[in-house]
UniProtKB/TrEMBL annotation:
SUPFAM superfamilies in alphabetical order: Metallo-dependent hydrolases
Matching InterPro entries: Amidohydro-rel, GlcNAc_6-P_deAcase, Metal-dep_hydrolase_composite, Metal_Hydrolase
Pfam families reported for this sequence: Amidohydro_1
Organism per entry: Roseicyclus persicicus
Name of the molecule in the record: N-acetylglucosamine-6-phosphate deacetylase
Binding site for Zn(2+): 108, 172, 193
Gene it is expressed from: nagA
Lineage summary: Bacteria, Pseudomonadati, Pseudomonadota, Alphaproteobacteria, Rhodobacterales
Length: 354
């Protein structure tokens, strides 16, 4: 196939003619696979910064750039449960950012019940003031995703958020299947990192996991080999392959050689592909998106080409309602792979080695 890009936009896609001169992306006899760049909807940090540390648009761009080497060319910076003042400040910051890699904002909390690595002191119910802030933010941001627990937010308020254009996700919750099902009926559409920090699947009480598999339109999943057992990855893929969205849940150390960082005054240690609190609690993940794609393919036995869309197409369809295709008029934010190796990215008209 031949691909023509002009001014950062796909101009033409067609079969390549034998007599034409063009850049050949094949390498060592291996044909190139080109697809849209990955979209990561849960990125807590990178380049030494957490989202809450960012104070300028340049900070957010630096955070986003730390994920390019893993094939992520668009992301939602994710603010972990924080104060109303910090939340409002980060909303303003993202609204002022014009970097195309910043797709909007993910607020993971503070309206949660299972803390995980979040600061328990920050968790609280959603108030009228919060609702007003989020509805206004949904008008100002390209996309706003909010993770909440059904125990902390009434179905009426979930409906109000959804009607305002907020993508409502359920997570960090010990809710029953019935509670979670009611939240999905009210307008929630997504599940945040399936299996982690949520009530599990039992044959008499399916919990939040069961409700997500039964009712969520979209299901986030961390495929790093630590957060979710490979057997559970296979079960989720067998049950809802068209709805899974791979996320990295990356932290400040992404794109750096740092072995520790601080989260809400607590030290997080990086070792053996894991990020943990002192008590062993997982605190985000230490994986790139291309590595998550590879792990998901290995765990499920599916071809890499069948797993790649979980990193670029399902997140795009969740945010926009449209498939993510390389077609005339689409932004040329692309990646190139040879086998399972990411070898180049395209964002500004030229291929750059990954």
């Amino acid at each position: 196939m031949a691909l023509r890009v002009t001014a950062g936009v796909v101009e033409e896609v067609r079969p390549r003619r034998p007599d034409e001169t063009a850049t050949d992306l094949s390498r060592d006899g291996t044909r190139a696979l080109v697809c849209p760049g990955f979209l990561d909807l849960q990125v807590n940090g990178g380049a030494g910064l957490l989202t809450g540390d960012c104070t300028t648009p340049a900070d957010l761009s630096r955070l986003a750039a730390a994920h390019r080497a893993g094939g992520t060319l668009g992301l939602l910076p994710t603010l972990i449960s924080d104060s109303p003042a910090t939340t409002a400040r980060v909303i303003d910051l993202v609204a002022a950012t014009r970097d195309p890699a910043i797709l909007g904002l993910h607020l993971e909390g503070p309206h949660l019940t299972i803390a995980g690595a979040h600061d328990p002191a920050m968790l609280r119910p959603l108030t009228d003031a919060d609702l007003a802030l989020y509805r206004d933010a949904a008008r100002r941001l390209p996309h706003l995703l909010i993770t909440l627990a059904p125990e902390q937010v009434t179905p009426a308020r979930i409906a109000a958020l959804a009607e305002a254009g907020v993508h409502v996700s359920l997570g960090h919750s010990g809710s029953s299947y019935a509670q979670a099902t009611a939240a999905y009926a009210a307008g929630a559409s997504h599940a945040t990192h399936l299996f982690n920090a949520m009530s599990g699947l039992h044959h008499r009480e399916p919990g939040m996991v069961g409700a997500a598999l039964d009712h969520a339109d979209w299901i986030g999943l961390i495929a790093d080999g630590h957060h979710v057992h490979d057997a559970a990855l296979r079960l989720a893929h067998a049950a809802r392959p068209e709805s899974l969205i791979l996320v990295t849940d990356a932290m400040a150390v992404a794109g750096t050689d740092a072995t520790r960082f601080t989260l809400a005054g607590r030290q997080i240690t990086r070792a053996g592909g894991r990020l943990t609190l002192a008590d062993g609690t997982l605190a985000g993940a230490d994986i790139t998106m291309i590595a998550a794609v590879r792990h998901m393919a290995e765990a499920t036995g599916a071809p890499l080409a069948a797993i790649l869309p979980l990193a670029f197409d399902t997140p795009h369809r969740m945010l926009t309602g449209r498939p993510n295709r390389i077609e005339p008029g689409a932004p040329a934010r692309l990646i190139c792979l040879h086998g399972d190796r990411l070898t180049a990215t395209l964002t500004a008209g030229d291929w750059e080695a990954a």
